Amino acid sequence: MKFTKARALVLIAFSVPLAIELRTVAGFFNVELPLIAVAVIEFLFLALLFVLYGLYGEGSESPA
Amino acid sequence: MEIHTYEKVWLALSLVLIVGFIATIAYGASAGPGIDMIDDKGGTVDPATLDEHPKFGDPGIEKTGENQYDVYVVARQFVFEPGTSEPLRVPEGSTVTFHVTAADVIHGFEVVGTNANTMAIPGQVAEFTVEFDEAGEYGILCNEYCGSGHHVMEGTILVMEQSEFDSWYEQQEQQTGGEN
Amino acid sequence: MATTRSDRAFVDKFPHEAAIVKATFLVAFVALGIGAFFGLIQALHRTNVLRVIESADYYTMLTGHGVLLAIVFTIFFLCGVFHWAVARSLNRPAESRLFSWAWVGLMTTGTVLTTVAILGGLVPNLGMSADVLFTFYAPLQAHPLFYIGLAMFIVGTWLAGADWFLSYRAWRANNSGERIPLQTFMVLTTMIMWYVSTIGVAVSVVFFLIPWSLGLIESVNPLLTRTLFWYFGHPIVYFWLMPAYLMWYTVLPKLAGGRLFSDPLARVVFLLFLLLSTPVGIHHQYLDPGIAEGFKFIAMTNTMFLLLPSLLTAFTVVASMEHGARQRGGKGYVRWLGALPWRDPAFTGMALAGAMFAAGGFSGMINAGMNINYLIHNTLWVPGHFHLTVGTAVALTMMAGSYWLVPQVTGTKLYSRPIGLLQVIMWFVGMVFMSNAMHRAGLAGIPRRTAEPQYQNFEFLTPIGSIFELRVQIALGGTLLFLSVVLFLFNILLTSLGDESDRPVDAALPEPLSGPEGSPRILDNLAMWTGIAALLVILAYTLPLAGIIQNGGGLFGGGLPVPATLSAGLDFVVVTVSSAFNTLLGVIA
């Protein structure tokens, strides 16, 4: 399966609500997550996505 | 008609979910917590002659029994009477029955951060009961658009210690008594 | 390519119908642009990020936003989709071109009059205003032009429905034994629901609000006109949703690379909406005095049963998508999701809209809960909810659908698929920010429809984060949504200006996996279903309306109150009968 730009975009889209609701989930366990932590986590996810895209993305040879 | 097995399972689960929702609400409304709904028990009032009404003509708080009070509130563009120009005072640990109506257009009466919330409709009286456990201050706001000054329509509820409230209440009684 | 365009494109086969669709889409998109701009101004104003208008003018913007988006954009687009669907699925043009243009003209004239009355509020010396919001609750009063325009618009939609029924009758004359084609079935059941439900608003506007705004009658009964509004105000929700459902059922499976799972269940779903959409309006009035608790309970049970068709739809849509993905080579329990055509903005937009609709459904269940509702009634939670439903499930599906439909009526290729994809994703992300923050703000008690909710005497408290963060989220979300609309309009404009194409879009719709043959013919008995729908409405509304008129000072208000007469026993009977009927319906379905 190729890692296309479109799939990357859709994954980014779905990561936003998950990131926003992360604080609620943490709240259930009495952990107060500051906004900056959420921003960092989302940023790390985006970085990971970019790395994966660089490795397996449209421009590179598909391993599958 | 042909219904696939997965569809049947889904259908059954959906029905269970729906009946479950209705059951929890019926439980909350009648048995168990017995949450008070706004309904038609407050009766009606003529909005045109509100000023001559025995209660709404001079709205405010009235003692009806041991720790029991009635509060009459009139909502009009863009104030609560009482609530806006002076706080609505109630004693701590009391059970208060609110009677809320509107003088001009439809308003809302929401005690901020609680589920004490009703519509105030001209001609109709909303009746609901609230228990005030702790002394403190609550905000009231209008949550139904009522005209160009809707966003400034607010008020406060002051939950006072019993002794403090009593002396204030007595003073009020004397004042109105003196006027008569 | 061997095939000529005439074999495929809607615009060549039905040029006159395509012209009607283009006209309705044009009005819809102009309204979308203006309405979205007003939305941006509001999002920035109420969060105190940027204030370019007076707070008193906020309500003019809000009225314009509500009317232009929730009534004009959605319903004009619906008319275009339905006109396309009837001609396509019956494979015949409309009976009379003049008649089609007549309803387009009437609806457009009504829209212009209403918009003029609303925007008149921005010109101080004009003496014209209609700052009554989308719900126009009396005794707030608008200029007569507002109500007259609204009445013309509604009559226009009635004529549009008549147009489609005439097509159906003509088709039936030549195809006596056939099942109603699925898309036409969806159009007709939706329009029957619309006829039943618009009676309420028509009575309210024609008999009470127009004479009152012209000064012919002194006063109105505020609870009566409010109840008549909600008699219409909830079914209109399904009127918005049904064109989206039509596309999810008949177009989305094809875009996903497969076909619809089950035709009969699609019919059952539309029938359930026809039956249950109207006798639920009182659930918008849980907090209204003057309506007995029993009636609210009936509305609540009906509302909960209304979850059923949407849950069935969730199943069918996901199943059809999975089928499509597997046709495209998708494997595994979850991995098939990757095989879906995410590159196609029409598909991705609809899929994202469906996902958000699920979230909107959950917050809707809270609204429907008669007692939890007290916590969030008229708070920002409510607009948070309906921006997921009408604002995304409907609006995003319509925009995504446009990427597939507009080329069929213009004969030109979509200008840019990547821009389209970016647009639908921006809408999704923007709405996540805005709607999430609105829900949270509502839980903190911040009211809806309020220009600057910063009060002098108290602060709002939120358990997680701060009110400031929520404000920033709303402003950011609103900005992304507006930019998304700009991209959409730009893409559609350049599409319509593009060169004619031999094959603008693959417009063929495959047959469903399970066709209508196996399903009972009674599903197609529209007269019977109309009768049952009317009966349910009578059951749910006669007693509350009688009570409101009797106790609230008569038809026109202002009279002396009469003591309440409804006995608890009667309530109980009505509740029992209605619940039993609902359960029965559930079982039949």
UniProtKB/TrEMBL annotation, chain A:
<protein>
    <recommendedName>
        <fullName>CbaC protein</fullName>
    </recommendedName>
</protein>
<feature type="transmembrane region" description="Helical">
    <location>
        <begin position="33"/>
        <end position="56"/>
    </location>
</feature>
<keyword id="KW-0472">Membrane</keyword>
<keyword id="KW-0812">Transmembrane</keyword>
<keyword id="KW-1133">Transmembrane helix</keyword>
From TrEMBL, chain B:
<dbReference type="GO" id="GO:0005507">
    <property type="term" value="F:copper ion binding"/>
</dbReference>
<keyword id="KW-0186">Copper</keyword>
<protein>
    <submittedName>
        <fullName>Cytochrome c oxidase subunit II / ba3-type terminal oxidase subunit II</fullName>
    </submittedName>
</protein>
<dbReference type="GO" id="GO:0004129">
    <property type="term" value="F:cytochrome-c oxidase activity"/>
</dbReference>
<feature type="domain" description="Cytochrome oxidase subunit II copper A binding">
    <location>
        <begin position="66"/>
        <end position="171"/>
    </location>
</feature>
<dbReference type="InterPro" id="IPR034214">
    <property type="entry name" value="Ba3_CcO_II_C"/>
</dbReference>
<dbReference type="InterPro" id="IPR015209">
    <property type="entry name" value="Cyt_c_oxidase_su2a_TM_dom"/>
</dbReference>
<dbReference type="InterPro" id="IPR002429">
    <property type="entry name" value="CcO_II-like_C"/>
</dbReference>
<dbReference type="Pfam" id="PF00116">
    <property type="entry name" value="COX2"/>
</dbReference>
<dbReference type="InterPro" id="IPR008972">
    <property type="entry name" value="Cupredoxin"/>
</dbReference>
<dbReference type="Pfam" id="PF09125">
    <property type="entry name" value="COX2-transmemb"/>
</dbReference>
<dbReference type="InterPro" id="IPR051403">
    <property type="entry name" value="NosZ/Cyto_c_oxidase_sub2"/>
</dbReference>
<dbReference type="InterPro" id="IPR001505">
    <property type="entry name" value="Copper_CuA"/>
</dbReference>
<dbReference type="GO" id="GO:0016020">
    <property type="term" value="C:membrane"/>
</dbReference>
<keyword id="KW-0479">Metal-binding</keyword>
UniProtKB/TrEMBL annotation, chain C:
<dbReference type="InterPro" id="IPR033943">
    <property type="entry name" value="Ba3-like_Oxidase_I"/>
</dbReference>
<feature type="transmembrane region" description="Helical">
    <location>
        <begin position="526"/>
        <end position="549"/>
    </location>
</feature>
<keyword id="KW-0249">Electron transport</keyword>
<feature type="transmembrane region" description="Helical">
    <location>
        <begin position="230"/>
        <end position="252"/>
    </location>
</feature>
<keyword id="KW-0472">Membrane</keyword>
<dbReference type="GO" id="GO:0004129">
    <property type="term" value="F:cytochrome-c oxidase activity"/>
</dbReference>
<protein>
    <submittedName>
        <fullName>Cytochrome c oxidase subunit I</fullName>
    </submittedName>
</protein>
<feature type="transmembrane region" description="Helical">
    <location>
        <begin position="386"/>
        <end position="406"/>
    </location>
</feature>
<feature type="transmembrane region" description="Helical">
    <location>
        <begin position="264"/>
        <end position="284"/>
    </location>
</feature>
<feature type="transmembrane region" description="Helical">
    <location>
        <begin position="346"/>
        <end position="366"/>
    </location>
</feature>
<feature type="transmembrane region" description="Helical">
    <location>
        <begin position="569"/>
        <end position="588"/>
    </location>
</feature>
<feature type="transmembrane region" description="Helical">
    <location>
        <begin position="20"/>
        <end position="44"/>
    </location>
</feature>
<dbReference type="Pfam" id="PF00115">
    <property type="entry name" value="COX1"/>
</dbReference>
<feature type="transmembrane region" description="Helical">
    <location>
        <begin position="64"/>
        <end position="86"/>
    </location>
</feature>
<dbReference type="InterPro" id="IPR000883">
    <property type="entry name" value="Cyt_C_Oxase_1"/>
</dbReference>
